[in-house]
Amino acid sequence: xxxxxxxxxxxxxxxxxxxxxxxxxxxxxxxELHRTGSPIGLATVYRALADLSTEGEADSLQSPEGxxxxxxxxxxxxxxxxxxxxxxxxxxxxxxxxxxWASRVAAEHGFTEARHVVDIFGLCADCTAAAARA
Amino acid sequence: xxxxxxxxxxxxxxxxxxxxxxxxxxxxxxxELHRTGSPIGLATVYRALADLSTEGEADSLQSPEGxxxxxxxxxxxxxxxxxxxxxxxxxxxxxxxxxxWASRVAAEHGFTEARHVVDIFGLCADCTAAAARA
DNA sequence: GCCGTGTTGAGAATGGTTATCATTACTGAT
DNA sequence: ATCAGTAATGATAACCATTCTCAACACGGC
Lengths: 134, 134
Ligand SMILES: [Mn+2]
Ligand SMILES: [Mn+2]
Ligand SMILES: [Zn+2]
Ligand SMILES: [Zn+2]
Prior knowledge:
binds zinc ion; Arc Repressor Mutant, subunit A; 2 domains; DNA-binding; homodimer; three-stranded mixed beta sheet; 6 strands; binds manganese (II) ion
């Protein structure tokens, strides 16, 4: 029995996500899909993104505004993000020192099964320049 | 000219927040206030928490479920949290090395006005012990 | 081609948060 | 203490992201 059927919708979401630059919300991705002619439903975009995230094909995190945002994973390895809060451009960053720090701090306090949230939000070079002009 | 008036509502929120153990949502704090006899309005709780957060008297962060949660700050200094995802117990932690790392990484990528989200979620010593027993 | 059932999507429902706006009540001035 | 000006409050509606519902649909094994 098939546990998962293949539909153009799933593939459309995967491709649209890969095509987009940085982190993007489900709503924004849905808008983008419609803009390029796809009649996909909003609920389906939500479902596909949740699946991609579960399968590890996409990163997801909560924006400071409380919106869930997604990004196609370049690498499956553990990593963190530097995100422009203006345009969404994202850089995947290594954080070796932080990894060590996190596990040390957790251990010092007797915590186990520790996971960390480490992300940096700022204005990218382009958006900084644009802001300076205005 | 008074820029900020003193009301029992603000103080009630501040005190209720200090009284609560770990991070708590605006809704939960409102319920708690009503439970203890305060007729404060929900909107006011939201406003007071937002103010406390702005003034640095309270920390706020997005729970993994996307709810904004708050905690009374023991120290006004910049710090981060080690949070038990089982019981909510929280420890405030210093992250000197991480501060340096964050600003260095942001600068290296041309980012400005960088803010970081650095939190560790795990199981506290007690919850770890409880889990081991079961 | 058929059938069984996983998938879709329009719209309703949910739930957290914010906006309205008439009313209330601080506060500085008189 | 009284008053006036206005910031703060709160019941409620509005907002908005996300999830749910369920009838219609379409994969895919046969
Ligand atoms: Mn890490
Ligand atoms: Mn920091
Ligand atoms: Zn940018
Ligand atoms: Zn615990």
